């Protein structure tokens, strides 16, 4: 079975779809990240003001560090999106589209490092403070569930990267 070569129209359609998908994802991430940062900062101030024990200060610091981690992840996404847009314009050929797909794949593949990683210290401080304040069971269970969720986020992003790998392979196969 032979596969028809990819047309300029199909390249343009794939490029527009990729642009829509990444813009939608980025808008959601910025909105969710901003809301999370606000929540974590309010929790940091409230916990600090409530204060008292060293464990409470550790929890307050954890919320502040978690807000910073979300900011780092959002900044990385913003920088990578700006870098991808800088190459921008209309998809002139399959090579351009392949480059965009490869950048998106690499971003998703490394999400554990730039997206999940910056949040881990904040969670560790929060659950460490809860543990020290006597909430051993809660810290253990909530920490385990948080870890499972963060691993799930990394796995989902790796799977999305694998889908993009297949799309790149199809694009290469159909080049004329």
Q: How many structural domains does the protein architecture include?
A: 1
Gyration radius over CA: 21 Å
Strand content: under 5%
- Computed structural class: mainly alpha
Transmembrane segments: 30-49, 55-78, 112-130, 136-156
Keywords: Membrane, Transmembrane, Transmembrane helix
Structural description of this entry:
This protein has 176 residues and is mainly α. The protein has one domain (8-174). It is built from 6 helices and no strands. It has helices at residues 8-50, 54-86, 94-109, 111-116, 120-132, 136-174. Helix 3 (94-109) runs antiparallel to helix 6 (136-174) and helix 5 (120-132) packs antiparallel against helix 6 (136-174). It is elongated, with a radius of gyration of 21 Å. The relative contact order is 0.14.
């Amino acid at each position: 079975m032979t596969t028809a070569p990819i047309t300029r129209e199909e390249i343009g359609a794939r490029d527009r779809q990729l642009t829509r998908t990444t813009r939608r994802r980025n808008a959601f991430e910025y909105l969710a990240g901003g809301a999370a940062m606000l929540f974590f900062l309010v929790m940091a101030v409230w916990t600090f003001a409530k204060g008292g024990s060293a464990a409470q200060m550790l929890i307050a610091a954890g919320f502040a560090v978690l807000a910073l981690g979300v900011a780092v992840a959002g900044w990385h996404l913003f920088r990578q999106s700006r870098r991808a847009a800088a190459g921008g314009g209309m998809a002139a050929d399959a090579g351009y589209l392949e480059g965009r797909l490869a950048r998106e794949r690499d971003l998703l593949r490394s999400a554990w490092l730039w997206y999940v990683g910056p949040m881990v210290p904040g969670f560790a401080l929060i659950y460490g403070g809860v543990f020290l304040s006597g909430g051993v069971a809660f810290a253990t269970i909530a920490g385990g569930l948080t870890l499972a969720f963060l691993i799930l986020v990394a796995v989902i992003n790796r799977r999305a990267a694998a889908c993009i790998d297949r799309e790149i392979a199809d694009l290469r196969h159909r080049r004329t």
